């Protein structure tokens, strides 16, 4: 039997049951668990770390699209208050690129430590009823898809075995999601490969204080031998990233402040008086992506599914957007509110795998630009940065890609564009915004006044603030357009909604109903 099939020895005879078990309490897992619990599901989140363990982690940039998704949960403004806004960047001494060009409520990059994002998402997950258990190491996972059954019978469910301080335990759930990072136990239990390559073998990360802060909020430069990056958190601490071409140190080898200062001086011309690091580490940066985000009843999200260089600050953002895409689909399937739950769950891989591939290409291109060797390549890089600042359409495309605002999905069968595209934060009647309406956690139907609400549809029905508009639009819970039309009759509205949603059913009587 494979690791994905064999139960661990010593598991209890009467395991717990849940609708969904999530493995890994980083940002991706916390957002997913909070969404599922808010949808009325019984979700258990397992985390290997102890609750009191320090969590000074790599991610620090929150992009515009991620802030929009947090806004749809009522969290964005609070997170913005914890960090520093970067609204322009000047790559390699070129012309400053203005993020104010972004057509979003959040035309900037928020710089805040990952632990601030995690604290906010953990509080929200607990408030919605998610069960979070720290100091729980998952040691096995297996699933039996031969028939449907209730949790606890061992068929048609996922069994997750984990080690706790008092012994080995098991949870049966209708679905499991691995959000447990680049060394994912869930991915290994499924026997999935993680193809790719190492792109940077020795990079130093640290949080430091500076005696002489740079004039620009973000200091970045690369030379023939080195690259360095400094960005402020807004509380006196700076995130520093540094790499030197001649470094042969391995991941896990110790790094110290003197090495960091020397690399920064080579790349930036000064170390800006770095001192008092609160943490410093060395890492290897890989580009890898799992071939399938779904295997039966088990899903992968975040770094468990894709990992890449820190260039562009895209990793955590991509994971959070994975979670926002998957959570409402799991909820709809488990609540019996989808006409075709299997197709809906399959659409998670179909939509998010290409996005992961795009992020790998984008971050890979950025890191190769940073690491450009030879005077001609560096001159071409610097010229490209200068031209980018002068060509508006090119600048818009680049900013849309990195910010996530340009991400779209294929139109669903039977629809056409703009279906699959991100819905902007539309002004609605009554002074409300679309992303405020999305805080209910479901679909939002936008019509002119007077249109009938489709019967028993589990959605929010809103109207345009501009009373002269005749268009109709159905927006998914993750803020993407499911359907739109210049005009629609009540029967057409009912048909459009029915393609996505079944009539509202009574609340489930226990875990894992209607799946």
Question: What does this entry look like structurally?
Answer:
It is a single chain. With 515 residues, the chain is α+β, with helices and mostly antiparallel strands. Strands 1, 2, 8, 9, 10, 11, 17 and 18 form an eight-stranded mixed β-sheet that branches. The longest helix is centred in the C-terminal third of the chain and has 30 residues.
How would you describe the shape? Answer: globular
What is the C-alpha radius of gyration, as a whole number of Å? 24 Å
Q: What fraction, in percent, of the residue positions are helical? A: 25-40%
Report the biggest beta sheet as strand number plus sense, adding barrel if it closes: 8 strands, mixed
Mean pLDDT: 87
Instruction: Detail the poorly predicted runs.
Output: 1-9, 147-155, 510-515
Number of helices: 12
Helix-and-strand structural type: alpha+beta
Distance between the termini: 27 Å
Number of strands: 23
Beta strand %: 15-25%
